[in-house]
Amino acid sequence: MRKNFGAKPWVYPQPVFIVATYDNEGNPNAMNAAWGGIHDDDEIFICMGANHKTSDNLEARKAFTVSIGDVSHMVECDYVGIESGLKVPDKFKKAGFTATKSEFVDAPIINELPMAFECEVLRYDREACRLVGKIKNVSIDERVLTSDDKVDVAKLAPIIFDGVNHTYLQINEKPVGKAFHDGAKLK
């Protein structure tokens, strides 16, 4: 038997996206964005509300990066989600993050997080909470790559957000199948 819960934003897995921007003075800022995903081959979307320092920075700089939260930095990733850059201007530094300016967009790459999407703003609607960015580059720290330059998910150790239980979970299971292959058994 099933139980109905009404409309809820409960999807699995839900990535932990850390959005980083520069403010008008060139100071880096980061926030944890729970709802988002890939929109197209070269677009990413994020539910981004109106009352964030990041919202102001997006409108001013028209660029951002999205890093994948990982197990090693779960505390820091959670911190940038519960603290406001409007109240704590140095929250990026307080989180222990350092930045390198992206070569592709006017936004910081968080050095501590091994994977980042470097994006320019395509559309941003504060009231509708919709941010769409064009992915200009994906940069990945070599320490999480295999010898043939693929992401080793075990080394990346991404975390996901469980919106039902308000917890972070680690993706650490071994593959259970081969995509675009195993279903052929049913043909």
Automatic annotation (TrEMBL):
Residue stretches making up the Flavin reductase like domain: 12-144
Domain of life of the native organism: Bacteria
GO molecular function terms listed in the Swiss-Prot or TrEMBL record: FMN binding; oxidoreductase activity, acting on the CH-NH group of donors, NAD or NADP as acceptor
Cofactor: FMN
Keyword Flavoprotein in record: yes
InterPro entries, alphabetized: Flavin_Rdtase-like_dom, Flavoredoxin, Split_barrel_FMN-bd
Keywords: Flavoprotein
PANTHER family: FLAVOREDOXIN (PTHR43567:SF1), FLAVOREDOXIN-RELATED-RELATED (PTHR43567)
Similarity field: Belongs to the flavoredoxin family.
Protein's recorded name: Flavin oxidoreductase
